[in-house]
Amino acid sequence: MNHPSPQPGHAGSKHGTQIPSQTSESLTTSQGSPITDTDHSLKVSDRGPTLLQDHHLREKIMHFDHERIPERVVHARGAGAHGIFTSYGTAGDLCIADFLQSGKQTEVFVRFSTVVGSRGSMDTARDTRGFATKFYTEEGVFDLVGNNIPVFFIQDGIKFPDVVHAVKPHPDREIPQAQSAHDTFWDFVSLHTPAQAHTMWNMSDRGIPRSYRMMEGFGVHTFRLIGTGGKSSLVKFHWKPKLGVHSLTWEESQLAAGADPDFHRRDLADAIDAGHYPEWELGVQIFEDDGTAEFHGIDLLDPTKFVPEELVPVQLLGKMVLDRNPSNYFAETEQVAFHPGHLVPGIDVTDDPLLQARLFSYLDTQLTRLGGPNFGQIPINQPKNPVNDMLRDGFHQHKIHEGIAPYKPNSLDGGCPFMSQLAEGELPPLEYPQRVEGEKVRAEPVSFSDHYSQARLFYRSLSRTEQEHVKQAYSFELGKCTVPEVRERQLQCLANIDAALAQAVTQALGLPVPEAETAPGEVEPSPALSQVGGSWPVDGRNIGIVIGAQAPEGHGQLVQAIKDELMTPLTVAPHGGETSAGVKVERTYFTARSIEFDALVLVGDLAAVKDAQVPLDAKAGANPGSGSAVDPRVVLLLQEAYRHSKAIYCVDDAAHKALATAGISADAPGVFTVAPQSLAQQLATTLAMHRVWDRFPVS
Question: Which parts are annotated binding residues for heme?
């Protein structure tokens, strides 16, 4: 067997005095035993549960979990909030979990996060977002640990160290930070083609959400719900945001990374402080548990697959409202520990091989990150119901236990604690008695081998505008790769997904268009996957009211009218303090940037301020040939908002001067001249569509 020669500067190099650490040409365990398969965990048949005896899986995951301390290896940068989940009582016979019973209210803590970057990275990088919810139920803690994307890069948990090693910064330079636009990531996903579906979602607008408040959540895996009489159903969990699913433009995400790297956590905290409490509805797609774990040719145990909502609608079970910010980031948001094995009666796992490995990994990683086995005693992780686990001692033990017999059976403590009692014919509350049989193998079912159809389904379900953004994203990411073979392999994958997408990206890169290896099959688009075309509430949307040195007449009434429509008015003026009308100035020309506003309102004369600090990019944004005295920072604000398809309103003729200086026509789509008394209502109507999508039509 031929092996590549060691590269200079890497293990095996003869340069320098470093002792080589990786001396075998073949993969081995840490103890030197040869490895013949590192792509599949050891299971009972190709579709059975993963076996605890799989030493290679445990060693690989264990070492990966402890690579970085104390920061999380992934999901290091996050934001959290407290809230309440209220059940609709619609679960009925589907699930016996107490928190899903009618009218039941349960405290929750939610942590949103990026995946790739460190704690100090920016919020708005193109990345998957974590969406993890801790339910403090009366039957114990239930953790729904999901993402804002319903599919994952890998099918088997044994590959998790591989995908994270690939997407993290290059180990020789520790760059790029919080980005997938580099050789190692695209090297991996172009070779490990099950990643293509998740990658397609990441390259779409879903990879750069507008806000955590405007982000869907998914459980990713298929779970099992146990209903009355022990009936089992398979489900996929969904979080549906009240405000709809919206995204940033690519330029906005880049501006935010520099001007406000805390853009998402600030947005979440500000909205809660302002009383615009974020809301999501929890729902499930329900599938019959007939023993096949298959639906319309989609393997429900494959975490790289999703089921379109047109085929299986989401049944809503309850509503979550986040109404309280953490009082201490470290104590709550940083120390919270989630685990997909934190289950309650009525909810169980399936044989999804990625989920099976997570059941080991999440528990193991807390030992290093939170300093030992007693992380459940940290206040943010403590159950709200009584606990008696017979676990003792260890690092950071804060409980003073009584009794002398922490074992079962015992007589010295009177036999306490007693076992939970089951009624006659009642099943154990946490483990469904699923029958499993088969040989021990490292393999996967044939149904896992389709790596392109779901990426094709997602792409062809998007609007033309969204598809254009996907083309641009791939062009940027692959344009950052320096190894030609990596670009060529990924372009081949795109050709296998969609010919038009591959052609657009290859043209941008100046490369030939590859032929599809097999003819792409036809798919039925899923309109639910597009973010364009709906109408949504505008609660908490930020409106920039741009005024001049003198506050216009009726400014206070304008601010109040916008508040009455549940939007957030932010006055932007040349200087801070209060306006002549006594209205607080939240932003100045110098501190404001277009990214924080969903729409702009121009009022009065926006003349330049003498001796003002004007950034160079703002000076460049002005139109020097116009002879205008409009402040160049206002011009830049307008030009950016216009490029980002945001609505711009003028409430008097004086504001038209600023439009003309910025080179914007008063008749352009999404540019309006309105009377002050009708402004707020028109704002609400326009922003319900999120952006002015017809400003830059895609042919």
Answer: 72, 111, 160, 358, 362, 369
Give 52's contacts (C-beta < 8 A, 6+ positions apart).
Answer: 58, 360
Q: In this predicted structure, what is the pLDDT of residue 1?
A: 39
Residues with Cβ within 8 Å of residue 466, at least 6 apart in sequence = 204, 205, 530, 531, 532
Full DSSP string of 517-575? SSPPPP----GGG--SS-----TT-EEEEE--SSPPTTHHHHHHHHHHTT-EEEEEESS
Q: With a cut of 90, say whether residue 254 has pLDDT above it.
A: yes
* 562 vs 614, higher pLDDT: 562
Q: Which two tokens stand for residue 541?
A: 């949307």
Q: How many CA atoms lie within 13 A of 164 on its CB side?
A: 22
Q: How many independent structural domains does the chain possess?
A: 2
Using CA atoms, how far apart are residues 58 and 35, in angstroms rounded to an integer? 14
Which residues lie below 8 Å from residue 452, measured CB to CB, with a gap of 6+? Answer: 193, 196, 197, 493, 496, 497, 520
Instruction: Answer whether residue 7 shows pLDDT above 70.
Output: no
Residue position matching structure tokens 């609007």: 463
Across the strands, what pairs with 217? 239
Please report whether residue 106 resides in a domain: yes
Amino acid identity, residue 299?
Answer: D
Residue 169 belongs to a domain with what CATH number?
2.40.180.10
Residue 571 has pLDDT above 70, yes or no: yes
- Tell me: pLDDT of 4 over 70: no
Among candidate residues 336, 364, 381, the one where a domain is terminated? 381
- Sign of the CA dihedral 20, 26, 27, 29? negative
287 pairs with which residues across the strands?
Answer: 234
CA distance 157 to 159: 5
The DSSP H or E segment spanning 37 is: none
Name the burial class of residue 321, with classes exposed (0-12), middle (13-18) and buried (19+) by CB atoms within 10 angstroms of its CB.
middle
The domain in which residue 349 lies consists of 51-148+161-173+202-283+315-381
Can you count the helices (H) and strands (E) in the chain? 16, 20
Tell whether 466 is covered by a domain: no
More confident residue, 365 or 511: 511
Q: Once rounded to an integer, what is the mean pLDDT over residues 445-459?
A: 96
Which residue of the set 56, 75, 198, 342 is catalytic?
75
Please determine, for residue 364, whether its predicted confidence score (pLDDT) is greater than 80: yes
Average pLDDT for residues 64-70, to the nearest whole number?
74
Question: Among all chains, which residue has been given the structure tokens 């598809």?
Answer: 467
Q: Which residues contact residue 500 at a Cβ distance below 8 angstroms, ignoring those fewer than 6 apart? A: none
Q: Active site includes 328?
A: no
Model confidence at 627, in pLDDT bands (50, 70, 90)?
A: very low
Spatial separation of the C-alpha atoms in residues 568 and 571, rounded to whole Å: 10
Would 549 be classed as within a structural domain? yes
Q: In whole angstroms, give the CA distance from residue 103 to residue 428.
A: 25
DSSP lists the bridge partners of residue 286 as: 235
580: pLDDT confidence band, cut at 50, 70 and 90?
confident
Residue 75 annotated as catalytic: yes
Give CA–CA dist 180/477, Å, rounded: 7
The pLDDT tens digits for 384-435 are 988 888 888 888 888 888 899 888 888 998 988 888 777 766 666 667 888 8
Please tell me whether the peptide bond between 409 and the residue prior to it is cis, using omega within 30 degrees of 0: yes
Task: Give me the CATH number covering residue 574.
Answer: 3.40.50.880
**Average pLDDT, rounded, for the chain:** 91
State which of 347, 363, 381 marks the end of a domain.
381
Asked whether residue 515 is assigned to any structural domain, the reply reads no
Contact 112, 333 (CB under 8 A): no
Please state whether the peptide bond connecting residue 70 to the residue before it is cis, i.e. omega within 30 degrees of 0.
yes
The three-point CA angle 219-498-158 to 5° equals 40
Helical spans, DSSP H, in 583-696? 616-621, 632-643, 656-661, 676-687
